[in-house]
Every structure is written in C-alpha cells, then in structure tokens.
Specification:
The chain is built from eight helices and eleven strands. The protein is α/β, with parallel strands linked by helices. Helix 4 links the parallel strand 5 and strand 6.
C-alpha cells in the first residue's frame, strides 16, 4: 500500500502540528487517524495516541530498560500492531529479532507495513490480521522471547484482556526467562490497583514503570 506523498509545505507544517494523512474505516468501536508529525507517523484517536514511531513511550521505555534482553531476543510477539512502533524502536536500538504483530484491523496493518523502517529486515516482520486476544490461545507454548500487549479501545483495555485466562495464555506463550510487557492506561485508580493485583498473581516478579497515566507492567517469566 502506498500512502499519499506529503508536499514540502506539509512536511514543514508537521513540525508545528500533526498533519492528517488518512482516516480509517470504523472497524473497532472508534475512529482511528493516521498523522505525520515531526518526521514520523502517528496513529491516534480523539483521546489516545496508539503509535508514534520511535517516540512511542510505552515501547521505548520497555526496550531501553531491557535492552540486553532485546539484543539477544529471537522472537517477539506484539498484540495490537499500531504502526509497528515496536519495530521502529528495535531498529533504533539496532536489535533485529523476528517480530510478529497481530491486529484485527486490516487497514491499520496496511498502514503499519507501509511505514516500516527501511533498514529493518522485511523478512523478519510478519503482520497477522486477526483478533489478538483469540490468537494468543493458539500460540505454540514457550515460543517468544518477549510478548508486548498493547491493546486498547480508547484508553481502556478490551474486556477480554483484563481476564486471568488471557494473562495465563500470554504467560504460556513466553519462553522461560522471556519478558512480558503490558501497557495500561490508569484513568481509574481503583480499577488500576485491582488489575495490578490480578497481573501480579500470575507474574510475581512484576515491575511497573510509571509514565504519567501509562503504567508499563513488565515481568521476567
């Protein structure tokens, strides 16, 4: 898929405010839009940024914190593809594992594939158009060195993603010594503390990296 080329004036404008490239069809319960901002592509809704190239903080913070692990990783699974910010960030740190990104929205996958970093080996990136929560049930046990959960409807996790069954399936998919990462937006303190306990029951060594309302939950399995 080829995205519309930006004019020189639009590129200049993008350093002051995001320039709209395209709006998505309504596949989820929300409308998504693709923007170009300060040299990188963004995917966002009215109340949340889902992807922001190498600036995407949840993935950037986690990668930087566990850089040694990512440098040795061979297989990474991302639930909620966004614009493949995880791939952009791995490329930034010169880490080149095989990355599988699962997302229910085919249009978003097309956008993500169109804006992949040119120097990341294309054969190492696979997009799967499917329900990420359902797909995790069919993953081969202990397949991945890292699993990054980045699933949102607006600022909320889908209902199925807050269930223990989903968290257990995620854990089964990760190799011993591998890394679990989940991005959570804490807009409700009570709900956040309740969910934090649920995750910690399955991942006793859970560590939380705070980034304002973003809570990046990480654990070595």
């Amino acid at each position: 898929m080829q995205l519309s080329s930006l004019t020189f004036i639009e590129k200049i404008r993008s350093y002051f405010y995001p320039v709209l490239i395209q709006k998505s069809k309504l596949v989820r319960e929300e409308a998504l839009a693709l923007y170009y901002f300060q040299g990188q592509y963004q995917l966002s809704t009215n109340d949340a940024i889902y992807s922001d190239g190498t600036r995407y903080r949840p993935a950037n913070i986690a990668c930087k914190h566990y850089l040694d692990l990512f440098r040795q990783a061979k297989e990474v699974l991302v639930l909620g593809a966004g614009l493949a910010s995880m791939v952009h960030i791995l490329n930034k740190y010169r880490c080149y594992p095989t990355v599988t990104l699962i997302d229910i929205d085919k249009e978003i996958i097309q956008w993500a594939a169109a804006v992949l970093p040119k120097d990341y080996p294309k054969e190492k990136v696979t997009f799967v158009a499917a329900d990420a929560i359902a797909s995790i049930q069919h993953c081969v046990p202990h397949s991945y060195d890292c699993l990054f959960v980045d699933l949102f409807i607006g600022q909320c996790l889908p209902d199925a993603a807050v269930q223990s069954a989903f968290l257990e399936q995620c854990k089964k998919a990760i190799k011993p010594g591998g890394l679990f990462i989940m991005n959570y937006i804490a807009t409700d303190f009570i709900a956040w503390k309740y969910y934090q306990k649920r995750v910690q029951d399955l991942y006793p060594n859970l560590m939380i990296i705070e980034n304002d309302i973003n809570k990046i939950m990480t654990a070595i399995v």
